[in-house]
Amino acid sequence: MNNELEKFEDSDDEPTLDLDFNMMKQLVSSRLDRNCVKTCRLSRGANNEIHLLQFDNGPDCIARLPRNSINPAEKLACEVATMKYIAQNTKIKVPEVYDWDCTTHNIIKFPYILMERLPGQHLYRVWDELTIENKINVLSQIVDILFEIWNKCQFNEIGCLYMNKGRDAIPSFTGPFKSSREWFDVLIQKEKCFFETHGVQVLIDKMNMNLADAEKRTAELVKQLALLQLKLSKNNPFESIDLPPFTLIHYDFDAQNILVDWSSVDNTIKIVGIIDWEFSHTGTLWELCDYPIWIQEIEYEPYEFVSDKELQRNQENQGLRVHFRNEVIKIFGEKGGKILDMKEKDRRIESLETMFTMVHGFSMLECYLRCFIDQF
After folding, report:
1. For the whole prediction, is pTM greater than 0.90?
2. How many CA within 13 A on the CB side of residue 72?
3. DSSP letter string, 128-184
4. What does the pLDDT look like over 110-157, one tens digit per residue?
5. Cβ neighbours around 256 below 10 Å, total
6. CA atoms of 70 and 276, how far apart (whole Å)
7. Which structural domain, as residue segments, surrounds residue 97?
8. Residue 295 and residue 322 share a domain
9. What are phi and psi of 315, to 5 degrees?
10. Which of 95, 185, 248, 312 is the least buried, fewest Cβ under 10 Å from its Cβ?
């Protein structure tokens, strides 16, 4: 285990939160009944700042503060409830929540979560140094974790409050939903309403477009969104996967959110924690059974230069995907393998997820829509 304090690079150019660190120490000391003596900003991402809090006695603590304080309070409450649910219903190690406040009426004037600092290293920091045997071991553990989630966290409906970040000014039905098809229809409708209301002004402000051109281009985008809704109503790509029971989906189950204990003594590795449940939701087995993003196949353009190192990594990842698929079939049965195969052949759902579970600017959404409608 590596207890060295890790600092991460900031992921965007936005300013840091204007915090009074003395007030933060005062708040934390009061809430946890321990004397906080030091604070240290660990990272600053698009959605949150992460701070390390140290005390004159007892273990360290992590404070996570949303960068955007206008996000609905229920979003923070939902994350806290999810972590508590996972801790109570599975053996998966998640941070214990010590205290939280979803308002700005506390003394630091920011929503916050105070949580346990789990031991271990982030998997992405050590993955390239692992032997093939250890990589295979980690992938097997990941499949076991996915199965435990599937086995212990089952639901009859799909729930998703804030996947489409940044459009919360547009009111919409937030679920639960009876199917992925119903959920995506709401997400598309939300985008449609957003650009009907704000699209013209977005083009004028961000692209210096004149009013007539902005109105014409916005009308075309809204028309394309309506066309997509019509196509999906006639040819539903979700039909074969919208089968209850549904399950809990982490949504960002990537190597930066998987903590491992890698022993240099006997070269063993064990997953010791899963963090960042901010955008977790209930979804389908299709969403749960997926190749980890860091071993997925990379598609290169015909003219693109690929180094020998990249070719070697791709060849290694191909073998790791075979192992992962075999483990999925062993644990989930043939249906797990069929899902992985379907993902390789039918990219419609992946394309929809790319379009509507992330926030895109006007031009990018235009491009995605054009490609989807032309291709499918």
Report:
1. no
2. 18
3. GGS-HHHHHHHHHHHHHHHHHHHHH-EESSB--SSSSTT-TTS------BSSHHHHH
4. 999 999 999 999 999 999 999 999 999 999 999 999 999 999 999 999
5. 15
6. 20
7. 21-119
8. yes
9. -65, -40
10. 312
